[in-house]
Amino acid sequence: MAEPGDPHDPDDHDDLIGFASPASLQGRVRSPAEPQRPSEAGRIPPEPEDDLFTASVATTIPIEPEPVAPAPAPEPAPRPYEAPVAASAFEPSPGFSARPGPREPKGIPGGGMGLYAVYALILFAIPTLGASALIGLLAVTGRAGPEDPLSLSHFLYQQRTLWTAAVAVAVGLIFFLVPFGLGPAIMFFAALWLVARGAAGVWALKAGRPIANPRGWWI
Fold this sequence. Notes:
The chain is built from six helices and no strands. By secondary structure, it is an all-alpha fold.
């Protein structure tokens, strides 16, 4: 067994049989190993890459210059609007004087508003259950008609309409006693006929047209 301090040999062999001396346990500085350089024979040369930005002379496409559009001519500056000035503060300007004036209303026929009033009584015959038609009948009975042909045609038309409606209503009341029930039908058609003739008459009077056949039975 080795004693302390042994062996004195510079080469310590205790580590070969499982023992290690303090000298063998001391760290020793190792020099770094030099990296191995690859051999020139084993290197593979890189493949050449195509240059995407530099084209060969044979494949270069000539680029034509874009046509330059001519510059548009400058537009003249807009002139401010100059309103016509009136000669006086109380006189209208020429632009206002050139406007068309208001339309003149059509003249009322010779019958005046009386013709329109009778037509209104005819149209309100159904809502008033015949009371307004009775008033209109009294208004056109027992007096002379107007002198001008337009108003006279409407006056005779109103007389024929109201008298015919009155006779039809009287016949309808009589037929109320008949068991066949013709009274309500006669009065219903008489009311429709009265309102239709009244509407047609006031439309023609408003348009200034006379009644073609004022003594006729149809509209």
